[in-house]
Description:
Elements: E1 3-7, H1 11-23, E2 27-31, H2 34-43, E3 48-52, H3 60-70, E4 75-80, H4 85-93, E5 98-101, H5 106-129, H6 146-161, E6 166-169, H7 176-185, E7 194-198, H8 207-212, H9 229-232, E8 237-241, H10 248-260, E9 262-263, E10 272-273, E11 277-282, H11 286-291, H12 297-303, E12 306-309, H13 320-335, E13 341-342, H14 344-352, H15 358-372, E14 377-378, H16 385-410, H17 430-448, H18 453-459, H19 464-474
Parallel strand pairs: 1-2, 1-3, 3-4, 4-5, 6-11, 6-12, 7-8, 8-11, 13-14
Antiparallel strand pairs: 9-10
Amino acid sequence: MFRVLVVDDDNALKLTVSSAFSERNYLVDQASDGEEAVNKVMATNYDLVILDVNMPRLSGLEALKQIKAYDSSIIVLMLTAYSNVKDAVEAGRQGAYNYLEKPIKSEDLVALVDRALKAHSIVKTVGLSAPAITNASDDKGLIGSSNEMKRIFSLIDKLARVDSAVLIRGESGTGKELVAHAIHMNGPRKDERFVAINCSAIPEGLIESEFFGHEKGAFTGAEGRKIGKFQYADGGTLFLDEIGDISPALQVKLLRALQEQKFTPVGSNREVEVNVRIVAATNRNLEEMIRRGEFREDLFYRLSVLPISLPPLRDRKDDILPLVQHFLEKFNDTYGAKIEGISDEARDLLLRYDWPGNIRELENVIEHAFVVESEARITVPSLPDSIRGLSRSLSRSSMAQDNVSDSAQAQPAHASTDMKFAIDLNNLDFQSQKEEFEKHFIISALKVFNGRINQTALHANIPKKTLLRKLEKYGLTAKDYQDDGD
Length: 486
């Protein structure tokens, strides 16, 4: 349930507004001036604060500044009986969600708050789905603490206030569109359209028309004039997903549209001017594409004024269980179910799995379990085959480890192990002996984990990149160590 703080020195107005929110089942507190508001914010977790501008002791603008400095995730609406452009600009600069002039109808204010809290909810979901939103040069810091959540809120808040292009980078399923939507919903364009276009899903021959529109008869099948996504998003935000998949020819036209904020529809002689904010996303290595001549360097720098990098789920396993809980709540609502949690065995499998599809794959797994599960908790049999297969692999590796342990107990301590490695006393060269041990260790680990790269890296405590590099160095192929009977 959302908690709202209503702050105004007009008791009648404060009571009217508070009653309107109470009727919508919001938890409502009141304060009579800015100083009392700041103190209450520091003592209680509020989702939204409604601030009058002109108040005794501490003005609304000063209270706004202190509230945002304390917790930038709190949404603040400003109300004033004497609006002026200077205060409105300052309120926006300090992070106010909106600046409204009195009188305002209670139902209109409640509707605005509902929309604001929806934006707030998107940011919270981003906090779960993309907890390491950072500058591209900084890949540190995964969520798991309230300080990290505040950093995420703060970054989205800052990106939302400016109008520069944003480039979101990350693997498929890491939440790139969710981040783009959060930036839009918390910025000055929030009341305008958010238009998304997947560049990889449109046939090459139609993508220019999809971007810029076309005139009647511009090509075979063009039976009428069509407005493109750029024009449709005018005033709002245009999200270009998988931007790395567009052709070099379209890159040139896109660059011109970004630079001049104008374009020419297909088959037309007229220019169309637009005012859109561009947020782009990709899972491809654009720098490598630039080196190969597949992506324009000037377009790259035009798009990546503010770069954000989202990490894969396998690099932040501490977030899996909070995400599972989030999806449990979501699908309980969706399906009217009452699944209370997840069994210990199923939880362990989810934590061990490598999640190549990231957040999207985890959400699909939990939804699959909701459809199949007949118990009060998600159990192993309700998980997809991809996850249950890991259970069989772990059981096999456990048996292999038990066999090694039994063998070790039956042999003298100095006997050679299954790795069949022994020091060559005729070649006491540390580097060559170390490499020989390394090679045998990796072979043994691959055998135990059935040639699975991810499982070998995880359980043998070898960074995946290091393991791949060593395989290449020693001329080893992981598939050679897979059990054909699996």
